[in-house]
């Protein structure tokens, strides 16, 4: 039995529900050793198995130019089967060209971010089809709602990058909505943002617009600090499709960062065993990494780990499971083995912003962050297996990320913090509320939450039994209302609008 | 943008809501290196500071027999101030007597558990004043409800120990209700259980009854495998009160395990800095550990870490914060330094079984389990800062614990699991649902959840938008209905009842 008698600090007001306190902008740097799931030998075995898959089975590559690139680098290409097989030494020669770290440029230079080593950037959810909030449930999203969501991404200090469009604005035409998205990403945020890498057209539009926003040209981007991380999903198992290959080549040609991310759901698109799924993931990631180095030797590239599993009873994808956590941390080991920066994600299958959403996200985040991820995509806002961007989940995730960020600040151990004199002054059975040591430090001593409510039960009842999900709703609305747009040069803004209008007149990028 | 197209396994029924699938009974063994927050030098510094506090400031010890024990071992005792000061070498001589591991006996020998090294036992919530469920909210609990809660603790395979009474049965008299509790703990469970260590009388009643249940005598317990872990909270800062000292001495005399747990809330009962709070925690823990070794050299004892912080705006205790996680993992480092098994807890300040409850518990659990805890008390059921035992939180925690247990089973890497032939068989752009490798393994391939719902959104909506908290309610009711009482020898049962009745006639243990 634990005897707990909480003592209340007298004479101080209780915290307001919905009070918004944030940690300052700060990139994450992991101070602790990463968790290692497998032995060094086992990691080497999976790496070798990935190379064996590439050598013996190979990849199906649907895009002719990509096959041409592979052939030019000495791969065995079967044009009839569109099959590319890789010599293992050739793979490792290309992997050796990959920079182990780099920096990404933001419109606001103070928000440039480092990728690699112990550095980690946290990125918002990208790609969902739907938007959801407490008030109106799940629905197709509009451009206006998407702009509100982008304002929140800008406002949360703990998010270092926008993740490629939080959801589709379905009130805009599908051939041109990427232009409106890019314009919103550039003007509503001053952080780094992600382009859509689905096909060459969308990639080139992103490159043109980001160049305008930075006062440079698309042709010059390759000679400057990279701006873009573009997500390239292989079509697992072992296939690279046309739009993704086009996007990859376009980004690599321009010196931008491809994030090669096999979607290896164990039991469906990869073997039912984690060792097998990760071997296949590794093969697919290596194939994509190699292509970037053929296109432009030395261009930065990342290895995306997205291995999870399906529910074998239903085929439904599972996220934030123990297997997911292990897969993320093993992928971190594989990335460190080959010296390529690692991308992971914060994911859940939950459809509601409830305890499941939180514990699956927690499993994911510990998997990513203690697995040594350098980029956490979908770090905030992902719900329902990634089909939905939730306003409240964005806030809950921001809290969880802030907590991990604070956890990554280890406590200082020195004469001041050891506080021997304070312990002496207070003595047995006293209390520290009024101690000089406390008074000098109490305002910034501890993590101050965004969403968490620490009221006692009676106070919590009196105040209406507000749950975390409801508090998150209050917070995002207040933050949207308080949002301030970062300034932009009027000439740049006009040039962006001109580009967008011209491309709309031309018809944008028709989807096949 | 991530392109995710989930593929459904055709022709298989979807999982029923509330279906109860558990992992088998299995003690946790941590296969990974613990997370180290501080350097070895910093850990040594905090250890030395703890010894300095004991040497220069000392502990206030309210119970005369305890002071006598300390004096007999060479401590400097000021009877007027009831202050005990400790020579650091004497402290370490006694700490050196502590066994680094031991085994705890359960009524069912198959449920004996190991404590120490990489072994960890998970224990249910102990000590709350209230019970809570979705149907009736928070309320004072009854004996009947407490028995239902104990049935669940018995039923969850992932719980290895009952934690000392989930809540107070307020329909029973306060002087004798511990007897009814012990009887219920013995007869409704066959797992190890915790006694109440508040005063000698309650401890002796527990020892008598557990001896009867095991077919032995109280006098013999000290010569057998230990049965009890009793929680001893110091009255922080730096005070050991009478009931706790009495309980400690009684348990140690009988060869049982004291779990010395300072309640060092930083900013209130300890310095506002984590280094200071942990130094004070360490001093108090060492003082209690030393007392056990004076009473009975070599008796097993554990070091309980419970350092958290208060909200400095309100004085409310905070749990499951980044500071809590760091404190747990640093306490693990201190325990490994001195070779004493480590106890930690799964805690939250949330009043509702919502996302906050889950993410604060997740921070706690990662703190405990990757900090190397050998006993996690309050591992399931704790809500509202420990004032409430929640039926639904018990279920949610059981899910989170099962997930951590599965995470602690690293994947096998061998020819079978690497699955090269399956990858070859399926080939590019195929799928693995029907592969022989999948069919042979799919039933047990992945973690199967207790509470988590992986339905897609439309199915989830059709089925009534059931949240995790609501599913947990269905699950615990079904488990109570399906509970089977473990058999007990009728003679032992009668002897237990006789003892309980006699002690009730005698008046039990009056509280002062």
UniProtKB/TrEMBL annotation, chains A, B:
Any single GO BP term: methylation
Record keywords, A-Z: Methyltransferase, Transferase
Enzyme class per UniProt: transferase
The EC number(s) this enzyme carries: 2.1.1.-
Coiled coil start-end: none
Entry-linked InterPro entries: MttB-like_sf, MTTB_MeTrfase
Keyword set includes Transferase: yes
An example Gene Ontology molecular-function term: methyltransferase activity
Similarity section: Belongs to the trimethylamine methyltransferase family.
Protein name: Methyltransferase
Biological source species: Mesorhizobium shangrilense
Higher taxonomy: Bacteria, Pseudomonadati, Pseudomonadota, Alphaproteobacteria, Hyphomicrobiales
